[in-house]
Amino acid sequence: LKQITKEVASKGHLPSVHGDHSSDMLGCGFFKLWVTGRFDDMGYPRPQFDADQGANAVKDAGGIIEMHHGSHTEKVVYINLLANKTLEPNENDQRFIVDGWAADKFGLDVPKFLIAAAATVEMLGGPKNAKIVVPSITPPQIVSALRGRGWKASIVKASTMSSELKRVDPQGILKCVDGRGSDNTQFGGPKMPGGIYAIAHNRGVTTLEGLKDITREVASKGHVPSVHGDHSSDMLGCGFFKLWLTGRFDDMGYPRPEFDADQGALAVRAAGGVIEMHHGSHEEKVVYINLVSGMTLEPNEHDQRFIVDGWAASKFGLDVVKFLVAAAATVEMLGGPKKAKIVIP
Fold first, then answer.
1. Which terminus of the chain has a lower count of CB atoms within 10 Å, N or C?
2. Quick one: pLDDT at residue 156?
3. How far, in Å, CA of 322 to CA of 194, rounded?
4. For 108, what's the count of Cα atoms within 13 Å in the CB-facing half-sphere?
5. For residue 230, what is the DSSP state?
6. Structure pTM?
7. By C-alpha distance, which of 212, 196, 206, 213 is closest to 258?
8. Interior/surface letters 139-173, b for 16+ CB within 10 angstroms, e for the rest
9. Closest of 178, 197, 173, 186 to residue 263, by C-alpha
10. What interhelical angle do 139-148 and 320-333 show, nearest 10?
11. Which stretches within 28-174 are classed as H helix?
12. Positive or negative CA dihedral for 126, 120, 315, 248?
């Protein structure tokens, strides 16, 4: 338990457990169910510590103990699948809030996590009324939108790509979707058009100081920020940035950057980011739009594909629809393949 407390802190969150003012540390209904064996028939072994011991261990490892008050009057269960987003409780209008995406962040078995959450509500006599909060566009809607642009698009399950999908590596660069070879082989980070330029573009950030802030933000969220050039056009070798700089996104309402490619690269580097250089010609055959949170694919210069980690747009609070439309438009304007596979959990 102490190790988990430290792990949660290392991943940027404040670990906690709770009690309440009527039952002290047994005021956490979930823990009470667990310690008294109500999960036995689901195959969960009971904890080898009581509620007070657990609370003391969490506190010793740097966690927080909170105490709840009042009675349960929850009317609904929100299961939130928007990565890095949450809802806040309101004691005057109560609801259970389950951040399903967090299970994936901590490498949990997501179906077991959600089933255990539902069983908890049921055993505590809570409301059997749930709302599933999903991204603003569904996989079938993505397919439909792409087909409307003349693309061939299909949905593939992550289970069919288990040998290729990799858990995001914090040492990997948050890099461009470009499928070519690179002088930086730390390919385990998320993929977004232009690397971190995608974040600036989506938010309408056009200044060097704004770009530096985004560079630091990406690092603070556990990724290595990057932008790229290539060996034939130097820093204008990033097709996405070139389109943005030269006004090809003007009719989509995106203001142009107030800096050129060299200035942007220098700003990213000055703020602690990485500059990579691509080589070779574009030979991508397909675009992968990956919606499996915390997972990515890696480029292969000998079997090229564009890789767009759609879940990363949610992580950085971007407008997901605009992000995906801009990614598709980028591929089209660069003469890439109008063929997409949408990867879902």
1. C
2. 98
3. 15
4. 17
5. E
6. 0.66
7. 206
8. beebbebbeeeebebeeeeeeebeeebeebeeebb
9. 197
10. 40
11. 29-35, 51-60, 100-105, 110-123, 139-148
12. negative
The one-letter amino acid code at 38 reads R
Q: Tell me the torsion sign for CA atoms 154, 156, 161, 166.
A: positive
- Alpha helices in the chain, H assignment, sequence order: 2-10, 29-35, 51-60, 100-105, 110-123, 139-148, 197-203, 208-220, 239-245, 261-270, 310-315, 320-333
Residue type, 292: V
Q: Are 227 and 273 in contact (CB under 8 A)?
A: yes
Nearest CA-CA partner of 243 in 333, 171, 169: 333
The pairing of strands 339-344 and 287-290 is parallel
Secondary structure of 267-317 in the HEC alphabet?
HHHHCCCEEEEEECCCCCCCEEEECCCCEECCCCCCCCCEEEEHHHHHHCC
Which of 218, 184, 222 has its CA nearest to residue 198? 218
Neighbours of 297 (CB within 10 A): 19
Contact by Cβ (8 Å): 158, 174: no
Please state, in angstroms and rounded to a whole number, the distance separating the CA atoms of residues 15 and 1: 11
Q: Is the Cβ–Cβ distance between 222 and 11 less than 8 Å?
A: yes
- Phi, psi values for residue 68, rounded to 5°: -85, 160
Task: Look up residue 141 and give its two tokens.
Answer: 């809607």
208: left (phi over 0), alpha (psi -120 to 50) or beta: alpha
Residue 263, φ and ψ in degrees, nearest 5: -65, -40
The reported pLDDT for the residue numbered 168 is: 97
The series of mean pLDDT values per 10 residues for the chain, 345 residues long, is 97 97 96 98 97 98 98 96 91 97 92 96 96 85 96 97 95 97 97 98 98 98 97 96 98 96 98 98 98 96 98 92 96 98 96
Based on C-alpha coordinates, what's the Rg of the chain? 23
In a 3-state reduction of DSSP, which class is residue 121? helix
In this predicted structure, what is the pLDDT of residue 134?
A: 77
Paired strand residues for 344: 157
